């Protein structure tokens, strides 16, 4: 099959890339391994992590359309109370992590609506569920990619002049021979204050297998996991308690803190102020990533709130899942950990009344669209990352380094983002690294491989370091990167120029930035302070 633009990976970056290229008039093929498009927002079941100003600025117009579409979908199809329906910044889950916590399948529906006109016209072809298994190259160009069906013996060769890697782990980089890095870079290489003395390529952030829960009458205890005893007794050196407990290090201070867990509090959804600048929101784990607040809906519509478990105790950091022969084994262990956390909560977790266990906790695989009850896909925080023309380093955006000067202003900025440098415990035994950040820009140089000419990163695989990936890996930035990659492919096809030439030629760069501005891509921040 042939197209103008091939997008491999249907996460948020892949969807944004396909949408941008199709809107520009290009024929597009989009592939995705899992049953739902949307990646971390849907198949990985992670509500959006966003900055404090997201309702006003700091995201592309199309990302805003996605958020507005989610709210409108609830208003059209869900039995909201009149008070919640009138809530301009409707937060369906009234979670503290985001101003628009919601059920994953709603984002799936809105993404499908956004893509529908291009599917109908035939401009966009979606191949699902397919994963990349091989690639053909010719010198410094990628000719095509072979994808295999997940469930049956079927392969398709895909050819396009521009190929975008929007996979969660940068799968096309080793397949195409594109130079890349993994894990920690050394301080000698990057100059980063938080980097180690020597590079640690196998030291990567934890992965998590998320799941959804409600709390209703009855005993919904799952079967005891086979290795439950191991996980119940497991106590990482830096954790301060067993992993399966309400106690864990505070990401910003590393002080051992105890979080509360109160299912179905009778709180007012409209009183939730989901602003992580003011409050991280994880004091009560139930409301932290709640995706359906029953008080937002008419009486009886929901028997319980629904909460999304992406909490400290499900972080799996026993081994990396990239560039290792036993990746599938580690992923199975990550799923086992998630089941063990649930079983512990149902049977042994301390309750506020002095008792133990919450047998009313019910696994909601229908919410995550999976047969086994967990998210369809693991939440991958850290990808392979291209060796780029420009690599974003900690001192570009660290609040401690930059202070009142703000993040580095890049002449080739192609977007903006904001999130603390937020690294979860890693496979090398490191604790959290959580560093204040300035509102930052995304440089075009981070999207251009040092050698390969027509392969573009469209997700978490851009030119960041292990450390700055902690800021650039979140939902709005991934979408921004993907959208720009799609628009860059179109621009290069129209002008007969390479991505490298666009960055290196002032006239072309200015024209491309004008094109981005016309598409609703913000490239500079107003004057706001970091946190």
TrEMBL record:
<dbReference type="InterPro" id="IPR036188">
    <property type="entry name" value="FAD/NAD-bd_sf"/>
</dbReference>
<dbReference type="Pfam" id="PF12831">
    <property type="entry name" value="FAD_oxidored"/>
</dbReference>
<protein>
    <submittedName>
        <fullName>FAD-dependent oxidoreductase</fullName>
    </submittedName>
</protein>
<dbReference type="InterPro" id="IPR005288">
    <property type="entry name" value="NadB"/>
</dbReference>
């Amino acid at each position: 099959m042939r197209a103008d633009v091939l997008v491999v990976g249907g996460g948020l970056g892949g969807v944004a890339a396909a949408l941008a290229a199709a809107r520009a008039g290009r024929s597009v093929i989009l592939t995705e391994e899992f049953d739902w498009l949307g990646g971390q927002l849907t198949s990985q079941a992670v509500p959006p992590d966003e900055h404090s100003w997201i309702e006003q600025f700091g995201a592309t117009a199309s990302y805003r359309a996605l958020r507005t579409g989610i709210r409108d979908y609830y208003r059209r199809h869900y039995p909201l109370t009149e008070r919640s329906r009138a809530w301009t910044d409707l937060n369906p889950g009234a979670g503290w992590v985001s101003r628009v916590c919601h059920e994953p399948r709603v984002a799936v529906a809105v993404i499908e609506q956004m893509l529908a006109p291009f599917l109908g016209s035939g401009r966009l072809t979606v191949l699902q569920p397919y994963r990349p298994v091989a690639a053909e190259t010719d010198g410094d160009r990628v000719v095509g990619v072979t994808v295999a069906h997940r469930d049956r013996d079927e392969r398709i060769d895909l050819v396009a002049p521009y190929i975008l890697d929007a996979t969660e782990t940068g799968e096309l980089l080793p397949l195409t021979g594109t130079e890349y890095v993994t894990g920690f870079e050394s301080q000698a290489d990057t100059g980063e204050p938080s980097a180690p003395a020597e590079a640690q390529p196998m030291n990567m952030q934890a992965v998590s297998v998320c799941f959804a829960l409600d709390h209703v009458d009855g005993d919904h205890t799952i079967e005891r996991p086979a290795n439950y005893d191991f996980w119940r007794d497991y106590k990482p050196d830096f954790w301060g308690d067993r992993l399966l407990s309400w106690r864990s290090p505070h990401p910003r201070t590393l002080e051992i803190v105890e979080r509360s867990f109160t299912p179905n509090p009778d709180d007012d959804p409209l009183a939730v102020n989901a602003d992580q600048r003011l409050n991280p929101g994880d004091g009560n784990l139930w409301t932290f990533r709640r995706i359906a607040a029953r008080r937002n809906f008419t009486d009886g519509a929901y028997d319980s709130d629904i909460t999304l478990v992406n909490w400290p105790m499900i972080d799996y950091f026993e081994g990396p899942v990239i560039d290792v022969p036993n990746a599938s084994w580690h992923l199975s262990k990550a799923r086992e950990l998630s089941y063990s956390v649930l079983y512990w909560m149902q049977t042994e977790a301390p309750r506020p009344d002095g008792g133990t266990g919450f047998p009313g906790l019910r696994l909601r695989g229908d919410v995550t669209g999976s047969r086994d009850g967990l998210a369809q896909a693991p939440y991958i925080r850290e990808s392979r990352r291209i060796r780029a023309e420009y690599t974003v380093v900690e001192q570009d955006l660290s609040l401690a380094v930059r202070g009142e000067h703000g993040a580095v202003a890049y002449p080739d900025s192609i977007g903006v983002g904001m999130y603390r440098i937020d690294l979860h415990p890693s496979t090398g035994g490191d604790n959290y690294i959580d560093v204040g950040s300035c509102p930052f820009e995304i440089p075009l140089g981070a999207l251009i491989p040092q050698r390969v000419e027509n392969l573009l990163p469209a997700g978490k695989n851009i030119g960041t370091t292990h450390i700055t990936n902690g800021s650039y890996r979140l939902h709005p930035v991934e979408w921004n990167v993907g959208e720009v990659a799609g628009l860059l492919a179109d621009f290069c096809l129209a002008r007969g120029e390479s991505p490298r030439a666009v960055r290196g030629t002032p006239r072309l760069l200015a024209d491309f930035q004008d094109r981005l501005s016309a598409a609703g891509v913000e490239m500079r921040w107003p004057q706001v302070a970091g946190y």
